[in-house]
Amino acid sequence: MPAHTPRADVLAAVPALVDESGEIDTAANRALLTGLVGRVDGVFVAGTTGEFPALHRAERRELVGLALEIFGPDRVVAHIGAAATRDAVTLARDAVALGASRLAAITPYYLAVDTDAVTRHFAAITAAAGDAVVYGYLFPDRTGVAADAEEFARTAAETGLAGAKLSGAAAGLLAEFVAALPPGTPLWTGHDSALAAAVRAGGRGVVSGLSSAFPAPLAALADAVARGDAEAERTAQAEADEVAATLAGSPEAIKYALARQGIGTEVMRMPAPLVSAERRDRIDRLVAAVGAPVA
């Protein structure tokens, strides 16, 4: 009999949908979140896919509150990270006041920091979070803060961080983080199609931008891995790889894919490359092939 593996989490890293003038589109965000219920295990709100540096405090409150209303506190990870500790602390208090029980915070970014500065940053956040759990968010490619498993383990022990999301170069270090942290510490990869490898390395699952627009392939992959069904896993992995290659991990492509499914616009808050005609054609074909839209 094939070995069975605990089923991986698939957390959709949702974009912040805006209207043609760039204002938060509450109806579109509600439609997106409602359409994901029962198709993913939860949502990661106001993260990189959500263009968090371009969101105002009130907008982050609105998006987190909407997710909590639709998914409930156990299935929402509210990203409250900011470059300034003061701002991250304020956002943490906002999220907890809304009822969030799971928070994530990216490391500081822009100015160079050392391990002590990062530890002080996270200590202030966990203190403000009270009983809510806080996960670190490591994305060295974007923040300039190196991902080191041993250093993170010391920081987590000192500050009470409960786990981490590992993106970019950090995702390739997941096994090192598993070895450095206490057994059972939840770790998610931000590498969308690497769910199977992450789970087998001891990770909890994936925080996936692509699953915002195409949740079925990642859910099927998680199911196949959990069942130990090698044939189903190969099929689902190929589908997940195709989605990942088509969207190329970009929020602008994810927004375009959602717009083609009737959810929101493709307007970005942050400057981003235009989705090329070739990629639009690939996304259009994918929308037609994968089946029913998210909504």
UniProtKB/TrEMBL annotation:
<keyword id="KW-0456">Lyase</keyword>
<keyword id="KW-0704">Schiff base</keyword>
<dbReference type="InterPro" id="IPR013785">
    <property type="entry name" value="Aldolase_TIM"/>
</dbReference>
<protein>
    <submittedName>
        <fullName>Dihydrodipicolinate synthase family protein</fullName>
    </submittedName>
</protein>
<dbReference type="Pfam" id="PF00701">
    <property type="entry name" value="DHDPS"/>
</dbReference>
<dbReference type="InterPro" id="IPR020624">
    <property type="entry name" value="Schiff_base-form_aldolases_CS"/>
</dbReference>
<comment type="similarity">
    <text>Belongs to the DapA family.</text>
</comment>
<dbReference type="InterPro" id="IPR002220">
    <property type="entry name" value="DapA-like"/>
</dbReference>
